[in-house]
Amino acid sequence: MAQILDGKKLATTMQAKMQTEVAAIKEKDGTVPGLVVILVGEDPASQIYVRNKEVAASKMGIYSKVDRRPETITEAELLALIEKYNQDEQFHGILVQLPLPAHIDEEKVILAIDPKKDVDGFHPLNIGRLFTGDPVMIPCTPYGIMKLLAAYDISVAGKNAVVIGRSNIVGKPMAHLLLQENATVTIAHSKTQNLPEIAKKADILVAAVGVGHLVDESYVKEGAVVIDVGMNRDANNKLIGDVDFEAVKPMADFITPVPGGVGPMTITMLLYQTIKAYRLQKS
Ligand code: GUN
């Protein structure tokens, strides 16, 4: 029976440590790390994510501001707003909550963020540094997964890792972080043939596809480490992962639950990187 990778517990431990770090920074510098979250429109899921970020930031003593803008904001106005925060020394991290309304080009928005303040790690400069093996700002979800593996002493070097999903936010950076730790990495996606067969070769399987309970026992090798990034709603509006937890748990060595696995780590890494950005900008 698999051991649970308890992201909630690790997030609590890390957040307590970060709270102490922020207090020490305040004592020494008389200032604290600052994070601004720009939220455009009324997407209900985004509202919840942003609220959670705000609560966690204030718990840690990080100065945070949510700048809410209407759905009707123009691209030019949003770019000008980002430039304002690029220049504002109170804020060491800038996060623009995605998705954005269809009339705004996400790529342009990401490019406008000063790479030093890009706590999401989405700017092409930060992605490039990750791909060349010299990362600075790292996308928070895959970064949190690496911290979770490390906390449970799960070695990655030489292992077969299969990442299902190739998004810029999770799948691609996840694959590169695993590669950097010397895993042999396969990226699978919606066009992959024989997906269960490929997934079954994984010592470390990361599911980041957004299809509820896709990964069942036919996808998992005995003794695998199974990481579930999925946040899907079932017919009863219950939060479910990409992994059929009950079906997979008896075969895996380690498994993340949903909720309480990857999710709490993502927010923690965002604030971790806000502190990192503060240090980089102060030095
Ligand atoms: N929307 C969903 N996840 C994320 C994330 O990690 N960062 C941003 N900026 N938007 C998101």
UniProtKB/TrEMBL annotation:
Reaction equations catalysed: (6R)-5,10-methenyltetrahydrofolate + H2O = (6R)-10-formyltetrahydrofolate + H(+); (6R)-5,10-methylene-5,6,7,8-tetrahydrofolate + NADP(+) = (6R)-5,10-methenyltetrahydrofolate + NADPH
Any one GO biological process: purine nucleotide biosynthetic process
GO molecular function annotation: methenyltetrahydrofolate cyclohydrolase activity; methylenetetrahydrofolate dehydrogenase (NADP+) activity
Organism this protein belongs to: Enterococcus canintestini
The UniProt record lists the keyword Amino-acid biosynthesis: yes
Protein name: Bifunctional protein FolD
Residues the entry annotates as binding NADP(+): G165, R166, S167
Pathway entry: One-carbon metabolism; tetrahydrofolate interconversion
Record domain Tetrahydrofolate dehydrogenase/cyclohydrolase catalytic: where: 5-120
EC numbers: 1.5.1.5, 3.5.4.9
Family: Belongs to the tetrahydrofolate dehydrogenase/cyclohydrolase family.
Keyword Lyase: no
One Pfam family, short name: THF_DHG_CYH
GO CC annotations on file: cytosol
Function per UniProt: Catalyzes the oxidation of 5,10-methylenetetrahydrofolate to 5,10-methenyltetrahydrofolate and then the hydrolysis of 5,10-methenyltetrahydrofolate to 10-formyltetrahydrofolate.
Stored PANTHER family: C-1-TETRAHYDROFOLATE SYNTHASE, CYTOPLASMIC (PTHR48099:SF5), C-1-TETRAHYDROFOLATE SYNTHASE, CYTOPLASMIC-RELATED (PTHR48099)
Subunit text: Homodimer.
InterPro entries named in the record: Aminoacid_DH-like_N_sf (IPR046346), NAD(P)-bd_dom_sf (IPR036291), THF_DH/CycHdrlase (IPR000672), THF_DH/CycHdrlase_cat_dom (IPR020630), THF_DH/CycHdrlase_CS (IPR020867), THF_DH/CycHdrlase_NAD-bd_dom (IPR020631)
Domain Tetrahydrofolate dehydrogenase/cyclohydrolase NAD(P)-binding: residue ranges: 139-281
Keywords for this protein: Amino-acid biosynthesis, Histidine biosynthesis, Hydrolase, Methionine biosynthesis, Multifunctional enzyme, NADP, One-carbon metabolism, Oxidoreductase, Purine biosynthesis
Transmembrane intervals: none
HAMAP family: THF_DHG_CYH (MF_01576)
